Amino acid sequence: MALDTPVIAPDAPERPAPTRPPAPTGPAAAPAPDGEAAREPGIKLAIRDLDLFYGTFRAVREVTMEIRANEITAIIGPSGCGKSTFLRSINRMHELTRNATVRGQILLDGTDIYAPSVDAVDLRRFVGMVFQRPNPFPTMSIYDNVVAGLRLGGGAAKADYDEVVERCLTGAGLWDEVKDKLRQGGTSLSGGQQQRLCIARAMAVDPEVILMDEPASALDPVATLRIEELMLELRGRYTIVIVTHNMQQASRVSDQTAFFSMNEDRAGYLVEMDRTAQIFTNPREKLTEDYVSGRFG
Amino acid sequence: MTGSVVVREGTFADRLLAARGSRRKTIDRIARSIALAATIACIIPLAAVLLYVVVKGAGALNLDLITKPSKALGTGGGALQAWLGTLQMVALATLFAVPIGILSGIFVSEFAGNRAARAVRFASDVMVGIPSILVGVFIYALLVLPFKQFNAFAGGVALAVIMIPVIQRTTEEVLQLVPRELREGALALGVPTWRTTVSVVLPTAKAGILTGVMLGVARAAGETAPLLFTSLGSRLVNVGDLGKPMDSLTLFIYNGARSPITALNEQAWGAALLLLLLVLGINVAVRFRSMGGTRA
Amino acid sequence: MNHATEPAGRPQEPLDRAVEEIIARVEGDIPEPMRSVPRLSLDREERMIKEILLRMGSLIEERIRLTIEALETHDAEKALFVIVGDEEINALQLEAQDLVVLTIATQAPVARDLRYLLALDRIGYELERVGDSIANVAKRAKELAPEAPLDGHVGIPEMGRLAAGFLAATMRAMADSDEAAAREVSLRDDEIDDLYHRAAERLVVLAKDASANVERAMRLLIGARYMERVGDHVTNIAEEVVFLASGKHEDLNP
Fold first, then answer.
1. In this predicted complex, what is the ipTM?
2. How many other CB atoms sit within 10 Å of the CB of residue C77?
């Protein structure tokens, strides 16, 4: 279960320095601040030619896409198509897996998160993650779970904790249910509550992007709907990227939908990305059409 | 699809009766009985040993045995120097073995590569299997011969060598049981790896690690062979002088049991019961203390 | 080895056990190339709805011809058959509608399937309106049955024959989800419109000529008007066919 240090693919070509995209023309074209690559407004994450490997196996091939700020982007696709791997590369959790390597660029507000100057631990404070199964820390109380990121990562002063706990639990729609038992263990809550606690915990470190890896797949339908409503409330404040098996869920909560599939080489690739309404009513690609209408997978 | 209705013979009750497997039930009953018999065969020696020690030792276990040291010559006196020695040497061994065992367990579980982990695991397994008398001989060569003096320190080290693999293996195995999701949950919050290990992984595995330590302590407290070559045993109370020989309950039992004198035989039984109670007491105390922290 | 130059889609050798474990953990599954999985029950339900609509279409086509015959042969009984028979068409429409609701509720269709079902639902509605229009023409035919014919029924039979052909062609386009065919046949509505305008002008002249003509001219005008509406409804059906095939809303007869 060792967590390895990152390895950049030995056969990867020299990583090109983050290049400035062509400057926008017209009156809106303002010069980018020094030292920061110019970026398109509204684009939070720009993924360029991303390849992800486990050893020599390529799990994700040549993904290029843009994720818009403060929107919900859903990633759908058949089992094993690399969508979770892709998601985990956005906060560099991918590299925790043995022999996992990365090629290509992920630009967060114009900065390549795989640049040598970027530390993965620092990055994860800006790009949080919620997992498939609720994973509150079993040895910690509800209160301590929420502030775990601040306390263990070295953040705000202790005096701020009470305020953070109330704000984040309120934000996650959990405050009223747990305000009288903040000292109880986090695992004493129901599955849906645990997942909202995990969302509150992710919010506590004040990230800009929240990644969700099938956040409701282990929950019952009612708890699932609560999580979805919560996501819609968080929309506008955070850039949310959600991987989901549940296409209805993707169509309900997301603004943009990206469809991943794979060919004979079993490497996942991006088939199509578009406004969610478009994907679920009239997608451009036949493959997407077949997948969303349940005729492929 | 052509909808054809399957017509079955007889009533449901008839078919149920026909399907009843009396053979299956017989085999099931026989298998169960065998398993039960094996379980009883397994428990009998354990219960017998415990019962025998309690019955034989209860008579000899009195206040004198606990509060008085052995007389320098002849019979009489108690086993004070023995249980004090056991406590000291086990404590010393624990002091060495716990940090080494736990840290190496953490290393193998959390940080080592596949090959390194396999190597350490193999080494530990071999260590567990080494006859303890070999450990005694080894420490004798290392810490007794150079000083030309049997000493308690060497006894403690010998016990530590026996404890380390036990603690290391249990720690590692318990850490492996901590769900990966918890580690990833912490890492995804921007918590550094070492902090994740210390503040999330270790507390979660606390009860299990403690069990490993207790296993080690019990094992060390019960060892005789490695002490024969190192702390030797003594009839004198030795508190704190690690450079001198020191007695232990196991050595006391060993010597007493070998003696032709009946009184000493009986004292040995008392000491055996005392050892049993000591290990049990430490176990209960540690469990009780750790109870406040987390659920098992 | 350089993965970047590897042709996409080349089958990879079997996965390493260790890699397989990692992927299964991260992705929750081992990658398997996608393959088609038919949705038999959804397809069957779509086909059932389509068949009901096709039955409605052929029934209406027959009613149009009967109405023309009733008008031309002054057969009040035939006209009455069409008028009463409208109930049958209405019932079919409700049957189709219920099936659409049931299918949407149980199959959760999206994309093409959803468009298809919605389009079929609206086609059923339009067909029902066509049925109403034809029943209305039949009512005029029944009223005119005892009267002497006025100027060869001012082209209403021609309109009807055109409309029947138009409907049949559009239903065929629907059956095949044929967008191009739907566009092409929709042009026929113009011919029906032309005939209607000519009939209207002619009827005005006839009514002015002799007051004895006025009543029959009024009835014929109403009949022609309803026959013209048939063309409009069929055009709407053609538009739905374009929508179900392409997802685009288009006014085929601006």
1. 0.82
2. 9
